[in-house]
């Protein structure tokens, strides 16, 4: 027996719980104001559109997990199904999400703390998040699966309590004063483009469901359970986000907030006892802190893998700290990059992350077509639907949502992509050589 082989211990329910924990159930509250302002008040309609768009991509991730039952990623699928050089470009764009995701998480946490303690500027809280999280990741602390379960339980408990207070306030006449309304889904006076813009913002809530593919070698019967877990995670979180946005809209139909970055906290103070505002804030901060720890650790690991294999400078990124055995340079670089958030708001930061997510999802959908429809010639009626039509719809929806992102995010995202193309040309000496293989799937 090979001692280096991972034990297959994760059943379907373990995978789903991890997926839900990774997506962070309270995220719908933490960026509710961004979704509300982007959609002009049809938040639930935007969530529905986002779920449908992500569902096609989730199916594509499931197909690729079956084709390559190893710890996967957008890079791995693109490299193996389409082309190694395009795989490097996909890996570069995935890097956008991994490296900048912590920045958005810490910015959200800082905005809520700033709302609770206005005397302290938001940038002070932001730097506090960065420094503390970076030091913990440098030391090497890990958040185990049991902590994930506890974090999910805490967040679900706070969500249920918030919903109870919200429903009580609605029945007492606050907001629309009714529990049955179609207005959170559709408003004839609001152009559909705003629904799509809200969906583009809402997709931030779903980024990370693809992380389940990294547990392929830990899962029991991975070719069945990984695809199922991806779909179930997406549907479970979609249902949570839908319920949250529906009732929050009913109690506060207007999308006019003093600060959209912490709108849910503003609503919590209106509908719940004062003590709950503090509980809600604590739950939000703890959730953001835990998510930031995981996101920074993941991003640092990706930078280390790329440095170790020579895709990024090996002397800077390819070494571990001698005593701690942690990728120190990568950890502190991600922390330093996050300081850019001082000049951003949550809308711009999350849109920037979504750019990387949408482009990466686009590549995965193309990978399904290349792998199944082209290479394996799955061209029966079922094959045409599953491996051509659905992936094309998924790819087009991702591009459609990407086009409705914040203009600033599109400009920065395109600049990042152009930088990746230039780097690829240098790395492959004008595409004449094969690029080194990244260790993302190790």
From TrEMBL:
Regions that span the bilayer: 12-32, 44-65, 86-108, 120-140, 147-170, 190-209, 229-251, 271-293, 328-346, 352-372, 384-402, 408-427
Coiled coil: none
One biological process term in Gene Ontology: transmembrane transport
Gene3D superfamilies (UniProt xref): Amino acid/polyamine transporter I (1.20.1740.10)
UniProt keywords, alphabetically: Membrane, Transmembrane, Transmembrane helix
Record carries keyword Membrane: yes
Membrane topology: Multi-pass membrane protein
Any Gene Ontology CC annotation: membrane
A Pfam family that the UniProt record links to this protein: AA_permease
Residues annotated as domain Amino acid permease/ SLC12A: 46-374
Intracellular or extracellular location(s): Membrane
Protein name: APC family permease
Organism name: Lentihominibacter hominis
